Amino acid sequence: MTDRHKIYFISDIHLGLHPAEQSVMREKILVRWLESIKNDASELYLVGDIFDFWHEYHKVVPRGFTRFLGKLAELSDSGIKIHFFTGNHDVWVYDYLPAEIGLTVYHDNITRNIDGFRFFIGHGDGVGKADFGYRMLKAVFTNRFLQWLFARIHPNASLAFGHRWSRSSRYAKGIIAEPYRGNDKEWQIIFAQELIRKEPYDFFIFGHRHLPFDIKIGENTRVINLGDWITKYTYAVWQNNTLELHSIFPEKEKDIIRNY
User: Fold this and answer.
1) Could you count the other beta carbons within 10 Å of the beta carbon of residue 3?
2) What CA–CA distance (Å, rounded) separates 95 from 247?
């Protein structure tokens, strides 16, 4: 029997991040968690940077992630709706995952009505004016002509580039997230505050920051950052008109910043 009444949100798993053995360990933990939610989940939102690097050609997709992709296919086949947001690390997702798994891919932020509540959902890179570097990088990576040029490179070379990038990233070096800067300096919160002056939202859900927080702004609005699956292993769950941020490891719950 299934009672699918929950909606789950996760982000920033960075599968494939160097070193490889740690990535495989995280993938196995992730698959076990997906198995644990399969009977009560109605929808699953993967909110960006699920892969540390991803580029698919017309007939070629990156090697690896077999356990994860197989579990997603199983969940999709069972009727769970899966939503995949591209992040700044896995922006080059095209039609492979929709065709093979049946999920829906989003390359930008979306607004969604869930049980009468208004959600703003997106990876969270480039939403603030201070995030200029990420916005420039995203503009380069989403340029159609540059994507076409990159696709002309042999897969062995392009994926080698991706692995080198993974090895040099701040995450591979153990630099995960800066401390919470305060409501007046966190650009995701500043963005949300500016947007609700124009139109109402109940929840903003972001990734990218690698710092799990749940902050109330205004009277009825909360900004949730989903954290990551490198050190925090955090996720959000919606049920009974309530949104909660948790870690799969109880001892890490104390690392979630809450102010509501």
Assistant:
1) 8
2) 31
Identify whether the C-beta of residue 237 lies closer than 8 Å to the C-beta of residue 10. Answer: no
Q: CB–CB of 232/253 below 8 Å?
A: no
Residue among 112, 110, 24 nearest 63 (CA): 24
The pTM for the full model equals 0.89
Neighbouring C-beta atoms of residue 77, cutoff 10 Å? 10
Place of tokens 């630099």: 175
d(CA 219, CA 135): 30
Question: 243 pairs with which residues across the strands?
Answer: 238
Distance CA 201, CA 57 (A): 38
Q: Are 12 and 228 in contact (CB under 8 A)?
A: yes
**Considering only CA atoms, which of 190, 253, 178, 244 is closest in space to residue 217?**
190
The amino acid present at 128, given as its one-letter code, is G
For residue 1, being part of any structural domain is answered with no
* Residue-wise pLDDT tens digits, 153-176: 666 666 666 667 666 665 655 657
Confirm whether 213 is domain-assigned. Answer: yes
* Domain at 224, CATH number: 3.60.21.10
- Structural domain of residue 62, as residue ranges? 6-259
Q: What is the pLDDT of residues 110-119, one digit of tens each?
A: 999 999 999 9
DSSP annotation of 106: E
Residue 153 CB contacts under 8 Å (≥ 6 apart), including other chains: 161
What gap in Å lies between CA 112 and CA 230, rounded to an integer? Answer: 28
Asked whether the CA dihedral 51, 30, 83, 96 is positive or negative, the reply is positive
Exposure letters 105-135 (e unless 16+ CB within 10 A, then b): bbeebeeeeeeeebbbbbbbbbbbeebeebe
Total domain count, the chain: 1
Q: Token pair of 236, please?
A: 């959000």
